[in-house]
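DM from R.C. (forwarded with permission)

"hey, sorry to bug you on a friday — could you get me a structure for this? deadline for the figure draft is monday and I only need the backbone to look sensible"
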Amino acid sequence: MEIGIGLPNTLSCLEGSTLIGWARLAELHGFTSLSTIGRVAWPSYDEFVALAAAAAVTERIRVMTNVALMPTWDAARFAKATASLDQISGGRPDDFEAIGRDMSSRGRDLDHGLEVMHATWRGEATPWFDTPFGPDAVKGRIPILFGGDPTKAGPRAARWDGGYTIGGAPFEMAAAAVNAVKDAYRKEGGAGDPRICALNYFSLGDEHTHRLVENLRAYYGFTGEYAEMIAQGAARSADEIRRRVDGFAGAGVDELVWTPSVGDLDQVERLAVAVMP
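My reply, with the result:
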């Protein structure tokens, strides 16, 4: 199983230089990917700006959005942003997760956006406009990870040759989601197995525990009591991180992305010591 690390783009009061230093350290220590979490109503760094900056100071590490709320964007602008990042990074964007808003039209919005995105990435006009919206994707497409309900994500993954991402669930629950999305993927005619990723929060060092809890409580405050469960569920020790690595590997996850809850650069090195060979 591959091990990726998140960029701390959602953490408040973070200096831009920290994102740059974080990206360089992540590549130096051999993590397979750098990922972001995107959100509109939060004082965070825009995920595509953050990833473009990271791509500019690295050469090999993949860049990916682990949450990109595509239906909150205009489809054409989303297609342009993703294609621009793809060109800036030389084709390193590995996956984009497309998940919907909590609205009755989110599925239709997502499907419409997928049509626009793929046409733009291929350098083609769309049924809605006779000129492509952005630069071509380096490889003609950008792989996508779908999130949410696996019975709905699986068919979309089959149609668009995509994968699936598990957002923050414990590994004890991951196997059921992996099996469900693979079943739905195969029933829809998908070839082989879809790529499966998972996200987990972490911080290492007792001196960071208070900020970890406060940051996650604040970020997930809109969820009510669920926020406390997320805050208390983050991994806080090297032993716990290694236990979860083994658990997610056993559940059939292809890449586990460790998302930071504090923005200190020591977190990259401490995580590398815990999980890298």
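R.C.: lifesaver. The longest helix spans residues 171-187.
me: no worries. The domain at 2-275 is CATH 3.20.20.30 (TIM Barrel).
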